Amino acid sequence: MSPALAKGLVQEVTPGPGHVLGRDLAQIVGVLLLFFTLLLSACGQEQREPVNAKQPGRITAQGIQYGGHLKIGLATEPTSLDAILGRSGGDAYFWHQIFDQLVDANPDLTPRPETSLALRWEITHEPEAITFYLRPNVVFHDGSPFDAAAVKFNIERILDPKTLATPRASMTLIDSVDVVDELTVRFNLRSPWGAGLNMLADRGGVMNSPARVLELAKDYSWAPAGTGPFKVNKVITGTMVHLVRNENYWGRDEHGNSLPYLDEVTIRVIRDETVLSSALRTGEVDVAYLPKKDVSAFQRDERFQIRTMEGGGIGAALIFNLAQIADPNLRLAISHAVDPSVINQAIFFNRNTMADSGMWPTGAWAHDDDVTRPTYDPEKARALLLAAGKDEFTFTAVTNNSSTLILTAEVVRAMLKKVGINMEIEVMNAGVATERFFHGESYPVYLTTWSRYPEPDWLASLAYKSDGFYNAANLPRPDVDELVARGAASYDLATRREVYHELNALILKEAWFVPLLYSTTYAAAPQKVRNLDRLIGWDGKMFLRELWLEQN
C-alpha cells in the first residue's frame, strides 16, 4: 500500500467489516428502527433519527439540509493523517475531521464535555490521578469499539519513545494508564497536571483505532481510523484528501440532529494564492482561508461571506537552533535587523498585526504585551554583531514552499544584508523542512509560520523543554525545564500565567523563538455554505462537522 501512496498515487481506503451489513441483516435492522421510531412517536416522545441513518436531502425542523459535497481549498498539505506523527500544525485541518479527542475544548479553551469522548472526569490528589468516564456506544471507523483499552493503547503509543510521537514531551507527566472497567480509565500522574485537560484537546488526546494501527503499521499514516465525523476515502499525496460521512458518528447538534450534515468533503491543496482565490470565485472550492491580498475584493463581493479570527496563528517567525548559533548576541542581531512592518505591508497588505510578545498570540491567556522583546533596530543589530566578535556573518535558513514565506524570506535576506549578515535560503515542503530543522538539525534558522496553541504548555513542553520535539538543539536547560514543569503542574490560572510570562521573557531575551507577525484568519465561502461561524475552532483550524450546504 505505501509504495504506491509514496509515489502520489490514489490510495483507496476500503471500509472494514464493521461498516457493511449483509442485505438480510440490513433489512431486519431497518424494520426494527422503523418500529421503534413509530413506537416513540406514538408515546408522544421526541422523535430522533437513528445515528447511522444517511438521509441525503433531508431537512430538519430547523431548516438544516443533509447531504452535499463540500470542497475546501488549503495552501498547505498534511505531513501525515496520523495526528500524533504529523509534524506540521497545518495537519489539524485534516485530522480534526477524522478524529475526536478524549477532552474537547471550547473557543475559550475550557473543556467541552458534549463533544468529548470522555463524558466526565475526576481529578484526585495523593495519589495524583485523572479518571475518565467514557462515552458509551462509540465505534471507530473500522467498526472496532472505543473503550478504556483503546485509550490506554493510544496514550502508551504516544509515551513510547520508539513511536517518535510529536506530543510526547507534553504527556510525560502520565506515569501509567489503568483500565478500571470497559468505560473507565485512570491516568496515574507523576505530579499535578494543570495543563492536562487542555493538552488532551490537541494531538495528545486524539483517539486512533488500535486494531487499524496494528494492522497497517507504517501505512496507517495515510489510512487512519478515528471516531470522528468523517472517514478517509481517498488520498492523493500532496494534492487532495477525500472524506466521506461517518454514518455511525455518535455526535449530535444542539437540536438532537445527527452529525455531520455533509455527505462528502474534498480538501484540495492549492499552494498558489492567485489560483486559490480564483478557485473560490469560480466555485471550484466552497471554503478557503483568504490570501491577504484578496481580502478587500471578497469583502466587496456580496456573493461571499467572511468570518475572521485575530491572532489565529503566527504569520511569520524566526526559530533558532541554539547549538548552531550558540551566541545569543548573533540571534538577537538577526532579530533586531528585521522590520516586521515592511513584511506586513509588502506581503500581507497590512492584514496581519505586529507581534508584540512571544509565541502566545493575541487572545491567548498567556499573552503578555508588556514583555521586553527584540524590535527593529539596525544600529543595535550591528552592535550585537560586533559584540559577538564578527564584522559579518553568513548562515543558511530553511523555509517551506508557501509563496508568502518564500517572499518573506527574500525580504528578510535584504534587511539582514544591510547590517552585514548574509542569509542564504533553502526551500522545502513543510514536512521535510520541519523534520530537517527540528529532528535532523540541518539548519541554524527556520523561517516559518506557527499554529495557534492557546494552551501554553503545548509550546512550552514541545518547543522550550530540553527534550521537546520542536526544540531543535535539545540542549539541557534545567532552568527552562523547571519553569515548564511549574507551568504545567499548577491548577491555578493566575499562578500559571505568572510562570508563562517569566518563561516568555526568557525565550525572547535569548532569542529562541522570535515571532514577527501575528496572523488574522479570514475564512470565506459563498452564501450557500451555512454555519460558517462554526468553521474556525479554538486553534484557528477548520472544523467541518456542523457545516451544511443549501442545495437547490
- Which second-level CATH architecture of the largest domain applies? Alpha-Beta Complex
- Using the alpha-carbon principal axes, give the shape: globular
Could you give the distance between the termini? 40 Å
The third-level CATH topology of the largest domain is Dipeptide-binding Protein, domain 1
Give the proportion of residues in helices: 25-40%
User: Helix tally?
Assistant: 16
Low-confidence stretches: 1-54
CATH domain class name of the largest domain: Alpha Beta
Q: Count the E strands.
A: 18
Mean pLDDT across every amino acid position = 90
Instruction: Give a short account of the largest sheet.
Output: 12 strands, mixed
Structural class: alpha+beta
The structural domain count equals 2
Please, what is the CATH homologous superfamily of the largest domain? Answer: Dipeptide-binding Protein, Domain 1
**Backbone CA Rg:** 24 Å
Strand content: 15-25%
Structure, explained:
This protein is of the alpha+beta class. It has helices spanning 2-6, 23-42, 92-98, 148-159, 196-199, 210-216, 273-282, 295-300, 328-336, 340-348, 378-387, 403-417, 430-439, 456-464, 478-489, 493-509, and strands spanning 10-12, 69-74, 118-124, 129-134, 174-181, 184-189, 230-236, 240-245, 264-269, 287-289, 304-320, 353-354, 393-400, 421-428, 445-451, 513-526, 529-530, 548-549. It has two domains: 2-230, Dipeptide-binding Protein, Domain 1 (Dipeptide-binding Protein, domain 1); 311-519, Dipeptide-binding Protein, Domain 3 (Dipeptide-binding Protein, domain 3, Roll), CATH 3.10.105. Helix content is 29%, strand content 21%. The strands form three sheets. Strands 1, 2, 7, 8, 9, 10, 11, 12, 13, 14, 15 and 16 form a twelve-stranded mixed β-sheet that branches. Strands 3-4-6-5 form a four-stranded antiparallel β-sheet, with helices on one face. The two termini are 40 Å apart.
